[in-house]
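Lecture 7 notes: from sequence to structure.

We start with a single chain of 245 residues. Read the sequence below before looking at the structure.
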Amino acid sequence: MSVAGKTAIVTGAATGIGAATASLLAERGARVLAAGLQPEQLEATVAAIGSNAIAVHADVSDPAQIEQLAATAEREGGADILVNNAAIYPIGPWHEADAAQWDEVYATNVRGYFLLAKAVRPQMLARGGGAIVNVASVTFYWGEALLASYVASKGAVIGFTRALAREAGPEGIRVNAVAPGAFPTAATEIHADQEKLWNDVLAAQSLKRRGECEDVARAIAFFAGDDSGFVTGQTLLVDGGWMRG
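Now the structure, written as tokens:
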């Protein structure tokens, strides 16, 4: 497989899309640093993967912990792949949010992606290049109500992806993004009416089934590996045809 023998960092790897991605990359032969904040779930993810993964407890909103995560990757031989997936998503009317909440969202969902990419850049350069995959969201494209800070942050992720691809490309570092639709993760559990949520999602999608986290993991693995070696600066919607045009 095109990621075999490479070292990958996956943030937000305790559950959901991050856990599925860590598992798939390891299955395809990568050494995975599964980073996250939920110790029990993170350890369970790594235990299920086996010897190809290690758990790294890290809060990507904290610059010091980002540096520690990068140092761990260096000790493991250096990062070839970075999957920026960790995110927070407070729900509520925009006018009830305050500056502290907005800053907290951006610290994890945007600044953390930037700082971790910057921290592993020397390792990627030493290894002849690398692949960064940022996780955005289809909610950016229509603007989901009650999630203003999250939607804005995911728009920033897409912009960051495009700009970084321009600068990092000459160094052999590819940068792409995936924008998932609705999947059974903690991000969808915040909606009060689950039945309505999934009925609405299925009505909007072209493909009439609920997406699985593995669907997103496979798209991330494509961008992470050599099969996408001439692809950079792109955002792939993995949403069952929710967004059309």
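Residues 99-126 form the longest helix (28 residues). Keep this in mind for problem set 3.
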